[in-house]
Design a protein that fits this description.
The chain has about 325 residues and is an alpha/beta fold. The chain is about 40% helix and about 15% strand. It has 14 helices and ten strands. The chain is globular, with a radius of gyration of 19 Å. The two termini are about 35 Å apart.
């Protein structure tokens, strides 16, 4: 089984300064060094030939990347599903160009309290999120709401759930993980968080909940399949290994992605996925969600159950 997901960091530039992220400060790739449309499209094409079914355009703030609308069109034309997560600062400007081009459009919203949300995001953008939600709905879009939860905004979840339900929009719960000098998400609060995961229009992967309750990834019996499942590409067009958040190496795609992906170097990383010392206790949601598609165990069953709930809530329940 080939990789399912292309995790494409199209830019590291960002117009927010979120408290849980260090990308804008520590990843200095100017717009002039970001990929051209032709190079980015070629990487996407080769990723599809390797088996990829989904392209997640991420950053930074992906709407700051010049060729994002064109890449979305191209990805859909060759049969790939797409996702974009945005802080919404630029969405009103690009809404028409993005219309019907994104399979899974995610708007970040961390509290229904304007000050709390803006403090987490580091800039005043709450009003842009609210404007973007109404604009998207008027354009016939149904964006998902991405709620990054930490100990500070945990008890805001009820209001955010009720807001999502009132708009019949999916709320994706994304527990903050230990990264960028933050403290991650205290396991003591998981029972409270879990109580919301079964409510209508709420998604929190049940397999991920089980993983977290068992202490995260164990290097002695790793459940991470990040290299089996996910190709991670930098704004400069390099392959990042083993993953972005625990990066050890990055390699130019010479002569091309397919050759590098099938090389002994990547094969060695694939053997060591989930086995590095820093993999002990890891529970980075964006890598485990696709990892649960590999192997057949309780994590797989629970993950499939949560995805079935997502499909029901998003496409059938309304």
């Amino acid at each position: 089984m080939g990789p399912l997901l292309l995790h494409f960091y199209v830019t590291y530039r960002c117009n927010a300064r979120c408290v849980f992220c260090d990308i804008p400060e520590n990843c200095n790739v100017p717009a002039s060094k970001e990929l051209s449309f032709a190079r980015a499209a070629n990487i996407i094409k080769q990723a599809k030939e390797l088996g990829v079914k989904f392209v997640d355009f991420t950053g930074g703030e992906p709407l700051m990347y010049k060729y994002l609308p064109e890449l979305l069109v191209y990805s859909r034309e060759i049969g790939l599903r797409t996702s974009v997560t945005t802080n919404c600062i630029l969405y009103p400007r690009y809404a028409e160009r993005l219309r019907k081009r994104v399979t899974y459009l995610h708007f970040s919203l961390d509290s229904m309290d304007r000050d709390e949300h803006d403090q987490i995001r580091g800039v005043k953008c709450y009003d842009k999120v609210m404007e973007s939600i109404e604009l998207a709905l008027n354009l016939g879009e149904r964006p998902d709401i991405m709620f990054t939860v930490n100990e500070g905004n945990l008890f805001s979840i009820g209001e955010v759930v009720r807001f999502a339900q009132s708009r019949k929009l999916m709320l994706l719960i994304n527990p903050e993980f230990d990264y960028s000098n933050n403290n991650g998400f205290n396991s003591d609060y998981w029972s409270y968080l879990r109580s919301y995961s079964y409510k209508p229009y709420v998604y929190l992967n049940y397999g991920f909940q089980r993983l977290h309750s068992r202490g995260g990834n164990q290097v002695s019996h790793p459940r991470c399949r990040v290299i089996n499942s996910t190709i991670v590409i930098s704004p400069e067009g390099e392959l990042i290994l083993p993953c972005y958040h625990r990066q050890v190496d990055s390699f130019p795609l010479e002569p091309d992605l397919k050759t590098v992906w099938q090389s002994d170097m990547v094969r060695d990383y694939r053997y060591r996925q989930g086995r590095f010392l820093f993999c002990e206790g890891c529970h980075i949601n964006c890598y485990f969600d696709p990892s649960f598609c590999y192997d057949w165990d309780a994590y797989t069953v629970l993950s499939l159950a949560s995805k079935a709930k997502y499909v029901f809530d998003k496409y059938i329940r309304p």
